[in-house]
């Protein structure tokens, strides 16, 4: 009996050593650097591993038009067309500048166009002023109508920015300044727009190369919509066992989740990342290839997602 126990202990020690040897064997050379994004001066820690240089932080670049650009902070409301209103004072200043240039010559009944516009600017929003003028006098005064449209269109981008900033400030005031820790969440198209010069959204093959560098087997690396590997996910997470890639559980804006009362889920539980690779499903539906990490899972999910969902972004250097 004593001899059997000794043999079993020997086997356990041998297996443990083999496991340790495996972990030591797959550890590649790793180095760290920094990158500063000239667009907003955010500085990112970067990690070079297996010949690839990745950002070791989630992208934090805010696309100017917010949700209209496919960029979200956690719990940020979508911007609707009816939410965008041109500033009344800016509109009045533009119209009066047009009056000074002589762009509104003519009369309507007892009023000149100038008098009419002055009255309407006091009573109507810019949107109503433009739509009413076009409806009632567009045919009679096409040049004046064109001038009003041009002025409105010139002011419209600033109106979008104002709403986007309001939406961001409102969400950040209640989500604990999410973007400072987790970065922003991007739709697939938003992610492609947000990447800084000299970097790109990683392909599915880029993710596979990283996973293979950490020891994921060839037999598992191509599996789709399944948890793959052994402990590679744990190596990429933030924490004492990680290599410095520092995945954080940012959650995401999940496609189809709104039917359950909201779109944002799994903060502090899951991390979701885009790749630039997508596949065409039946009925010509495009799905993006993603990576998913879970708080209680050491492996990595290679998944698929509707392109309108919003996930975190890790950039890879060109």
- Classify the helix fraction into a percent range: 25-40%
Order of helices and strands: HEEEEHEEHHHHEHEHHEHEEEEEE
Strand order of the largest sheet: 9-14-13-12
Summed up, the domain count is 2
State mean pLDDT (0 to 100 scale): 91
According to DSSP, the number of beta strands is 15
Shape: elongated
C-alpha termini separation: 62 Å
Report the total helices: 10
What summary fits the major beta sheet?
4 strands, antiparallel
Indicate the low-confidence ranges by residue numbers: 1-25
Radius of gyration: 28 Å
Helix/strand structural class: alpha+beta
- Give the amount of beta strand, in percent: 15-25%
Protein name: Fibrobacter succinogenes major paralogous domain-containing protein
Domain Fibrobacter succinogenes major paralogous: 169-317
InterPro entries: Fib_succ_major (IPR011871)
Organism: Butyricimonas virosa
Short structural summary:
This protein is α+β, with helices and mostly antiparallel strands. The chain contains 10 helices and 15 strands.
Description of the molecule:
The protein is α+β, with helices and mostly antiparallel strands and 318 residues long. The protein folds into two domains: 26-75 and 179-317, no CATH class; 82-171. Helices cover 39% and strands 20% of the residues. The chain has ten helices and 15 strands. The chain has helices spanning 2-26, 88-100, 113-123, 126-137, 142-174, 178-182, 188-194, 204-213, 218-221, 232-236, and strands at 30-36, 43-49, 52-55, 71-72, 107-108, 111-112, 185-186, 199-200, 226-228, 252-253, 264-265, 270-280, 286-294, 300-306, 316-317. A hairpin with a 2-residue loop joins strand 5 and strand 6. The chain is elongated. The model is unreliable at 1-25 (pLDDT under 50).
